[in-house]
Amino acid sequence: MRTFVAVVMALMGFSAQALAQEKFPSKPITILMGYPPGGSTDTTARAIAPVLERILGQPIVIQNRPGAAALVGTLAVANAPPDGYTVTVATTQLALLPAVDRVFGRPPSFTRDQFAPIALVSAEPSVLFVNATQPWRNFQEMIEDARKRPGQIVYASGGLYGTTHLAIEIVLKATGTKMRHLPTAGGGPALTAVLGNHAALLAAHPAVGGPQARAGTLRAIGTMGSKRAESFPDVPTLKELGYEAEYYQWNGLFTQAKVPEPIITIWREAVAKAVKDPEFVQAMERLGSGIHYLDRDEFRPWWDEDSRKTEETVQAIGKVQ
Amino acid sequence: MADTLQNLLLGFQVVLTPSVLIYAFLGCLIGTIVGVLPGLGPLAGMSMLLPISFGLPPTTAIVLLAGIYYGAMYGGSTTSILMRIPGEAASVITCIDGHEMARQGRAGPALAIAAIGSFVAGTGGVVMLMLLAPPLASLALAFGPPEVFALLLMGLLVLSYISSGPMPKSLTMAALGLLLGMIGIDPMSGYNRFSAGIPELADGLGVIPLAVGLFGVSEIMLTFGARVMRPMKPRLTELVPSREEARSSVGPIWRGTVIGFLIGIIPGSAHVLSSFVSYAVEKRLSRHPERFGKGAVEGVAGPESANNAAASGSFVPMLALGVPLGPVQAILIAVLIVLGITPGPLLITQHPELFWGFIASMYVGNLVLLILNLPLVGLFVWFLRIPYAYLYPTILLCCIVGVYTVNSSMVELLIMAAAGAAGYLLRRLQYDVAPIVLGYILSPMLEMSFRQSLAMSGGDYLIFFHRPFATTLLAIGVGVLLLDIAPSLLRRRAHQTAD
Fold this sequence. Notes:
The complex is a heterodimer. Helix content of chain A is 44%, strand content 19%. Chain A has twelve helices and eleven strands. In chain A, helix 3 runs antiparallel to helix 11. Helices cover 74% and strands 1% of the residues of chain B. In chain B, helix 3 packs antiparallel against helix 4, helix 7 packs antiparallel against helix 19 and helix 10 (243-265) runs parallel beside helix 12 (298-313). The chains are: A alpha/beta, B mainly alpha. Chains A and B meet through helix 3, strand 2, helix 4, strand 7 and helix 8 of A and helix 3, helix 14 and helix 19 of B.
């Protein structure tokens, strides 16, 4: 009987799909990404891939398709067949790019609801770093100075509308101050600009400015988490100082919204196992971000809140010149 | 100095173990291969091997990945010389005289000189890196947007002054390159410019499809229907550079080394610029500038040395400050972090075995590359014996596969094809296409640094004159411009008084 059904289905052209649904995964998986090799999204994917490979029993190929602030790769993920064989490690770009499209009055290239979250893997609070030769010893002094000379202090970012840009804009909005924006071509160049004192401050992932802060060339003056950052236990959060300015640098695993629920469940279970794997835990520790794991059900509201903040901030920045 | 020697000894102890040596060799080999394949650059090779390196001891991992990087710098010249296809962007200028040498049957010497020049420059670059990294790194930081803008502007002016071809033609091509560089997202406002709604164009045309099209594809098109002179079949004795060729390469190699290293350490500057500057300098210094473009060995020796020295120079800010200047350094830093080492200002003191192991591995790597590449010269030259009917379709296939692999993008293939057609037309009209590539590469940097400077000053143009470095560089540029115009102005005045 089974053979008969299989033959009929094969004749009807169903076989591949039906078999695939019977046992997932049965062929190699692709992690397709909008970001270039070397960044935190990429290294997170490369750290988790070998562990997931072991758990799912299928080879995982990592493909970077960077371009247009991750639009090219993100579009490719959105348009890939929704069979669970294409997943992505993504971050704020899912909310950010459509929001930027709205600012420019263009139809969005994709929307956030084309993606289904699987799990949040890491989230670190943005940390405010200032050049050590700047006179401010803490966050309050900097804000007082910014109030005295609005639009005079220069901050660097890794690019227009990027997370490092949005983080500072959130701070400026919360404190009611104004500064000058120096966009650069990425996290590295932004760091260089602050080290060379061409800009006074930047907001970055703790691992980006950490070594410089320990060497005394940068000073951390505030973190943007709900509690203090593990790597900067002595640096107050902006919340402690009385400002509502939370913003994270995070990476999560996503697939397409149309992927069938049973396959998403397989992915969720695999990631739940992977985040406990010592190999992955160690790799993430070394990446300086640790693991901040949220399963789909908790991740979704968290992601909605982060997206709301992102969209709001992009809207507030609006068009530049 | 004694300290340095002792440290270097420590470095060699780290590197001269069989397992590290094997990985150094492997890295150099892979690097040479990705360098030879057009389109596939060091970045692609390094990111493919990234997961493997996570499981290796730190020094071994860095030696492997760094080997790929400078291996690619070596390999890039091979296709430039043999087929006039730049293996990677830094070898664009080598196409001109290198391929001309190959057509005259001197492919062997050209390849050998490129390999030797790369070796000398690589090693010289490492020596400078070793001795000067900490002081140079802080100098590099002093280069903010206004300084970078002044430097690039001066570079363009000096380049146009010292290049002795028909100025209007090369300036027109450079301007065309600058215009092509405007396509894509405006980094300061986020507007899409001239990209016709194609997402792939948002990042611009891409230097690889442009260069491979302008040089490689146009070359193949030029041979269609034309009676091509076959390169002379090289004999083994002709693989070795003649005394004459060796002698005239010494100066360019040393000058290229210094030029390349200095340009390499500046953040936000283009390494490709180093090979163009070196070429222009050699042409200016030469007693026979008319030989350039017709197979001058100096036009291969200088630029090939310069791009390798620039590769060493670009490690200065990474090792001394933990700051990545480009994607290649970003990958190396990511690997170090994954391996539990935080690159930063304290790297040299906290992990001397890594820093000095890295330095020592670069000495070893350069030697490995020389040993690897010199015998390959003979092999590569044999390719030229393949009849054109088979060789050229194969080259075209290489171009297509190479360009496609970088971003798996169909659009980039179309860009390559269009650039090929444009290159064919321009070369038929006796225009040199190299300045297009230079203009294209400099365009976004020039624009970005200019507008960044104004963002810093709140729109005040005087920022370029409030900063001593920037002012000096601009003054040099203006001086060069005056030098160029002065003789003709004086002549005109003399003419008028005579009347």
